[in-house]
Amino acid sequence: MFEIEVQDTFDAAHRVVSYPGKCDRLHGHTWRVEVNASGRDLDELGMLVDFKGVRQKLKDVLSVLDHQYLNELPMFETVNPTAENIAKYIYYAIKKSMVFDGERVALTSVRVWESSHSAVRYSEGA
Ligand SMILES: [Zn+2]
Asked: Which domain, by its residues, includes 101?
């Protein structure tokens, strides 16, 4: 089994509405995002997937979030833009883009780092 990982960052402000502490106040993070995909078989070039395509897709997805006040975006209208919900949003945005060869390569997880010491990983399944 091979697993690739692509990383990028974006800057954005948010507040965790109703949080019993200072995270309820407007503040910002440089969010680090890691995308993982895996598969057993390589293509004819000996690659699982071309990093360049995945990096570009991640960049496209993050451009929607970059330098935004996340609470004002449509996808966070009914849920708080926590690291958990951001990871889930990015996961399905990447998955929907079908950047991976669905038969051979599967998106496995998206991890979002809110700071250098706190991260959330989202994947499907139990
Ligand atoms: Zn925060």
From this structure: 2-122
Distance 41 CA to ligand 1 centre (A): 39
- CA 61 – CA 86 distance, rounded (Å): 11
Q: State the pTM of this model.
A: 0.94
Ligand 1 center from residue 29 Cα (angstroms): 6
pLDDT digits (tens, 9 = 90+) for 69-90: 999 999 999 999 999 999 999 9
Active site residues: 23, 67, 114
Measure the CA dihedral 61/119/9/76, to 10°. 40
Q: Into how many domains does the chain fold? A: 1
CATH number where 110 lies: 3.30.479.10
